[in-house]
Amino acid sequence: MSDLQKQKNKSHASNTLDGLIDEAMDDISNKEAPSQTSFAVPVEVFYLVVLLLIVSVVFHQPYSSDTHDGPSTHALTSGKRVALLSIAEEIDAYQRNHNKFPKNIPGTLASVLQVEYKILSTNHYRLTLPMSEGQLVLDHDGGHEDIYLGGE
Asked: Structural domain boundaries of the chain?
C-alpha cells in the first residue's frame, strides 16, 4: 500500500469512530516492547532475610508474661469519688425536676457500689460509700458538696 493510499485511509478513518479505534489499535500494535530492565533477586538473599527475621524474633521475643501494675489506691479512690459525684448529679437532677429529693437513689450505679443515701433536711443529703479504708462520704448542703474519707 502506498503512502498516498495510507493518508487517504487515515483521513477517511479519522472521521469516524471506527477509524479512530483502528488508529489507536495500530498505534498500540506498532510500539516496541520495552527492554528488559527487571532483575531477579537470588534465592539466597530471600533465605538470608528469613533467617535474620527468625533470629531477631527468637532473641528479641516480645514478653507476653509482663503485666501492667494494677490501679493505685489513689486511682481507685478518685474513681469512687467520681462515682459519688455522678450519683449526686442524678439526685440533683431529680430535685430540680420534682422540687424534692428522691426517696431512693435513681439509677443502678448506687446499688452496685452499695452507696447509702440519707436525707438530712430539705436541702441537705449525705451519700456514703464503704471502702477498705473507711467510708467515703459526700455531704451535699444546698449548692455546696464536700467529699471526705471518714464516718458520720
From this structure: 75-149
Model confidence, pTM: 0.51
1-28: burial string, b at 16+ Cβ within 10 Å, e else: eeeeeeeeeeeebeeeeeeeeeeeeeee
CB 110 within 8 A of CB 97: no
Reading the block at residue 52, the C-alpha cell is 535474620
The mean pLDDT value for 22-51 works out to: 78
448506687: which residue's cell? 110
CB 91 within 8 A of CB 103: no
| Integer angstrom CA distances of residue 19 from 3, 23, 27 | 17, 6, 12
